[in-house]
Amino acid sequence: MKKTVKVVAAIIENNQNEILCALRSHQMSIPNKWEFPGGKVEEGENYQEALEREISEELKCKIKAGDIINDNTHEYEKFIINLISIEAKIVEGTPVATEHAKLIWLPKENLDSIIWAPADIPAVKEIMQANEGAPQ
Ligand SMILES: Nc1nc2c([nH]c(=O)n2[C@H]2C[C@H](O)[C@@H](COP(=O)(O)OP(=O)(O)OP(=O)(O)O)O2)c(=O)[nH]1
């Protein structure tokens, strides 16, 4: 049976209505695909704690994690992922790519211009749809 992994991902928004997108490097699993930064939830952690830890390890900045905006289960060839996407704000520092090939801030309306990890697509759609109804 395939293993199910629980992964939290940060939807980090800046003051310009842009979202932080991270490119997985060619050495990582699911290489060369874009994702929201984050990682696996460890035992004893709640989602927000896991996300705040992952971001400080991975991007060397501090975030405050908020509400869940999407919860998607996706079956990859080798495992099943339960990807929980959570709103977040940077409270200290500037994100630095320590593992990713690249970090970019993308306006919400352009989120569909890059190639996402398949599990992320429902969250991307949700963010874009919510943005369509928002005042500019
Ligand atoms: N952080 C993150 N991971 C994602 C997203 N979408 C998605 O399919 N994933 C997958 C990639 C990884 O297989 C797993 C996250 O694990 P991880 O962040 O600890 O990454 P990792 O590269 O160390 O994982 P692995 O190679 O050991 O499997 O979830 C996403 O938006 N954010």
UniProtKB/TrEMBL annotation:
Coiled coil regions in record: none
Family: Belongs to the Nudix hydrolase family.
EC number(s) on file: 3.6.1.55
SUPFAM superfamilies, alphabetized: Nudix (SSF55811)
Gene3D superfamilies the UniProt entry points to: Nucleoside Triphosphate Pyrophosphohydrolase
Catalytic reactions of this protein: 8-oxo-dGTP + H2O = 8-oxo-dGMP + diphosphate + H(+)
Keywords noted in UniProt: DNA damage, DNA repair, DNA replication, Hydrolase, Magnesium, Metal-binding, Mutator protein
A biological-process GO annotation: DNA replication
PROSITE patterns cross-referenced by the UniProt entry: NUDIX
Ranges for domain Nudix hydrolase: 3-128
Source organism: Gracilibacillus ureilyticus
GO molecular function, one term: metal ion binding
Xref: Pfam families: NUDIX
The protein's name: 8-oxo-dGTP diphosphatase
Cofactor(s) required, per the database record: Mg(2+)
The organism's taxonomic lineage, starting at the top: Bacteria, Bacillati, Bacillota, Bacilli, Bacillales
